[in-house]
Amino acid sequence: MSGGPFPIVMSAPSGGGKTTIARLLMERRKDVGYSVSCTTRAPRPTERDGVDYHFLTRQEFDAKASHGEFAEWAEVHGNRYGTLRSAIRDVMDAGRHVMLDIDVQGARQVTAAFPESVTIFIVPPSVEVLVARLQGRKSESEETLALRLSNARVELLEAERYQYVVVNDELEHAFRSVNAILDAESLKRERKPALGGEVVGVIAQLLDGLTAKVGGRR
User: Fold this and answer.
1) HEC profile for 53-64?
2) 204 lies in which domain range?
3) Is position 21 within any domain?
């Protein structure tokens, strides 16, 4: 018997590819929906309130936070971002799983609020690929690249907390792996950790490589 809709918590270090995989899932699966987040930052010219974000004042955001309305929230670059519990429930009440593309800190908060969440951590196949993806954005200075690599090492240490780890060596292959996870989880109520030996090895290599790179930049 199906366990019903559940939150999908997907995390990755910057350059891991989680946002692209999340978008593909929402494009290709009718049973996956998106929870519109709240933010205190100003909307960009092309953004619409209630579609891209719920744009709140700092006072409005803080009021919701103080009343426990957020499943997760954090401050990033001076602005606050959060996911409302009610927004997650609205998507699930409509019969769809909720896609949450969030960092490891947010993931801990969401899984505490929604223990039925399926947690997936996306990792690149190597440090070289991770660096190449970040440099390919054409927006990373040496300083920000070093910071992201340092943060990636911290984030990778959280991977063992996730039920599933998917190596994003090739986008379509990674998408199919995540898609298969959702298919399997949709058919069962009880979930078990599934951190295979192969991905444990990949994570160990990534951590060794990042330690060397971060240490070399000091």
Assistant:
1) EEECCHHHHHHH
2) 7-35+95-216
3) yes
Whether 129 is in a domain gets the answer: yes
Selection from 154, 149, 121 nearest residue 18 by Cα? 121
> For the domain that residue 29 is a member of, what is the CATH number?
3.40.50.300
Angle formed by the axes of helices 127-136 and 142-156, to 10°?
140
CA–CA gap between residue 108 and residue 142 (Å, rounded): 30
Does residue 24 carry a pLDDT above 50?
A: yes
The pTM (predicted TM-score) of the whole model is: 0.77
* Closest-CA residue to 161 (of 83, 103, 209, 81): 103
Give the C-alpha distances (Å, rounded to integers) separating 81 from 6, 13, 61, 104, 150. 21, 18, 9, 14, 22
Residue 25 within any structural domain of the chain = yes
Q: What is the pLDDT of residues 36-81, one digit of tens each?
A: 899 999 998 889 999 888 999 999 999 999 999 999 998 876 889 9
Instruction: Give 39's strand partners.
Output: 55, 81
> How far is it, in rounded angstroms, from Cα 138 to Cα 128?
16
What pLDDT score does 218 carry? 53
Q: Tell me 162's DSSP state.
A: S
134 lies in some domain: yes
The pLDDT tens digits for 179-191 are: 999 999 988 754 4
Into how many domains does the chain fold? 1
